[in-house]
Write a structure and sequence with these properties.
By secondary structure, the chain is mainly beta. The protein contains 3 helices and 14 strands. Strands 1-5-6-7-3-4-2 form a 7-stranded mixed β-sheet. A 4-stranded mixed β-sheet has the order 11-8-10-13, with no helix packed on it.
């Protein structure tokens, strides 16, 4: 079971473009929504929110303390400014502990591949997350994939090979590849006098769009 985090918040009356006032005060506008509740507009201290999001991600339950009430939520969307990457708005999904939900869980490789240890090949990563369905209290923060089974070149692990708790149902297609051992590519020396150049990609940065909140 993933760890549950606590976050203090306050009800919010400022909405729309006026939320820029909150950001200048070190507060982040957010909304709590769910199938069984009316949306709740809240504001959260920036620093506390930033630290919590680093730990909780999108798979840990968060207990939002509103003073007179509490809501158990998952982080659904974090909107950030384009240029500075600062948090501008957060959507929290209120969960019902008795109702299963669908979410994305990251894949985490563990162990060592004998083929890689023998310098015969290298690891080729496949998909990085899995869609799962579970009760909120049964969610995990990651699914470990042991690569010790990758003994030879072209050995692979697919979603169908995973063994997880009976309380978690994997929805991702079983034929999706998670990891494979492939032959390490050898870079041949260029003929003497031959020069290659790689032009760096030029990325045009547009003006930062003004955020429009609820």
């Amino acid at each position: 079971m993933a760890e549950t985090y606590t976050l203090e918040a306050q009800p919010r009356t400022i909405i729309g473009k006026k939320v820029s006032q909150l950001r200048r005060q070190g507060l982040v506008p957010a909304v709590i929504y769910g199938a069984k509740i009316q949306p709740i507009q809240v504001q959260v201290p920036y620093r506390a929110l930033e630290l919590m999001l680093r730990k909780a991600g999108g798979t840990h339950l968060i207990q939002i303390d509103l003073g007179s009430s509490q809501q158990t939520v998952l982080t659904r969307e974090v909107k950030r400014s384009i240029l500075r990457g600062e948090i501008e708005h957060v959507d929290f999904f209120a969960v019902d502990m008795a109702t299963k939900i669908r979410t994305e869980v990251p894949v985490h490789l563990v162990g060592e591949s004998p083929a890689v240890q023998r310098s015969q090949g290298v690891i080729l990563n496949g998909i990085q997350t899995l869609e799962v369905e579970a009760l909120p209290g049964d969610l995990v923060d990651r699914i470990d994939v042991d690569i010790a089974a990758l003994v030879n070149i072209n050995d692979a692990i697919f979603v169908r090979d995973l063994k997880v708790s009976d309380t978690i149902h994997i929805l991702t297609d079983g034929d999706e590849m998670l990891v494979r051992v492939t032959v390490q590519q050898v870079v041949e020396d260029l003929p003497e006098g031959e020069v290659t150049s790689v032009e760096p990609e030029v990325i045009k940065k547009g003006k930062e769009e003004e955020a429009e909140e609820d």
